Amino acid sequence: MAINQKQVLSLQQKLSPQQIQMIKLLELPTVQLEQRIKQEIEDNIVLEEEERPAEDEQAPQQISVEEYLREDDTPAYKSRINNYSKDDKPRPVYLTGGRSLQEYLVEQLGYRNLSEREMRLTAFLIGSIDEDGYLRRDLESVADDIAFSVGIETTAEELERLLNVIHELEPAGVGARNLRECLLLQMEQMPVRTRARRLARRILTNYFDEFVKKHYEKLMTRLQVSEEDFREAIGEIKRLSPKPGNLYTEGGTDTTPYIIPDFILDYHDGQFDLSLNSYNVPEVRVNRRYTEMIREMVAPDGTVREKDREAIQFVKNKIDSAKWFISAIRQRHDTLMRTMQTILDYQREYFRDGDKSKLRPMILKDIADRTGLDVSTISRVVNSKYVQTQFGIILLKSLFSEAMQTESGEEVSSYEIKNILQECIDEEDKRKPLTDETLMDILNAKGYRIARRTVAKYREMLGIPVARLRKQI
Length: 473
What we know:
Blueprint: H1 17-27, H2 30-43, E1 47-50, H3 65-69, H4 76-83, H5 101-109, H6 116-127, H7 139-149, H8 156-167, H9 179-188, H10 195-206, H11 208-212, H12 216-223, H13 227-238, E2 263-268, E3 271-276, E4 283-286, H14 288-297, H15 306-346, H16 348-353, H17 364-371, H18 375-382, E5 386-389, E6 392-395, E7 403-405, E8 411-413, H19 414-426, H20 436-445, H21 452-461
Parallel strand pairs: 2-5
Antiparallel strand pairs: 1-4, 2-3, 5-6, 7-8
Helix pairs in contact: 1-15, 5-6, 6-8, 7-8, 9-10, 10-13, 14-15, 15-17, 17-18, 20-21
């Protein structure tokens, strides 16, 4: 075949670097945006943080030397009686550094009669315990890691013996490899004085699978106990902690989730005031010193010396990158406010008092059509973003719900169906919980056309287990 050349005209869609940067910034919540801006300031030398003007700054008052040195005729006891009360007590502030769970366990090893080799192996085992207090790795893998990282040859049998030492430490149940072992370790550290505790230990030892699956009638038949005795034994088990790591609260690991809202919505006298929470987000600008430096390097006729060409090109690239970044920050602000304002207008009745029954059915496409933005852009805006209202901090993603039709043809939000589902389960007889099919019949009787699989989906979204696992005695 002959080799020839030809021109082909094709249309391709490509994202510019600024668009890619904008997309990445749009996904970031407020906390991560603050870190991203500070990282950009460190990477780009021409970017600098703009100082915020001080609020309510007052000019210092001029005080003459004579007024300052003038002797006050007021008795000292009058000053003390106005500033202090007899009920006031000194409250010292104690600053402590919390220990982690692993540090607390290693500290307890000091009270054990262990050799240096055993101490190092046990400390390595403690380091493999997760925040919940479980050892979720098999001992053979831990032995291999010890051989590579510490240089000590050991066996699973030796580690098993040292793991038993960890099981005797506090909090009770730490170092367990599964839930059954965790509960049994806690039971072993409790004095067995009552019949209920002896029965609880027997259930965990011999009938753990049946207990987890809540086959209570079968268990009472096998154990040959009354319902009252069985209920007391279950009560003893429920007092145990499934996560022993949570029993240690001195402060090594902070498990409390802190949420910083991205939007602040105030409601006063029937009017909404929406603003973007940018209190901790630094404002950036291009340092003028670098632009002036480029002007000084360029001659009046526009020529540049050869030795300055590389420096000018470097600074120019940094300035262009800084301008792109600042533009992306501003575009992010406009997109967020535009989207949130549209959501506010769409769900105005809900934002007045926070009543979820007033939530209108809303999907991403509804907001995209009203804002003129793409659905993917709306998805990036609402993902991991929160709004602070007068009734709490709300995840934007939770405001979106599917539309369901009643028998009369009226569209309602799926939140309304979830609320009815939650109420039915809260009021059910725990001895005979309602199945998904029964819940479907109840909703259909109320006029909501819904299938059983949809009931199961909403139940799982609410975090409610199946009927068998909700059973109580």
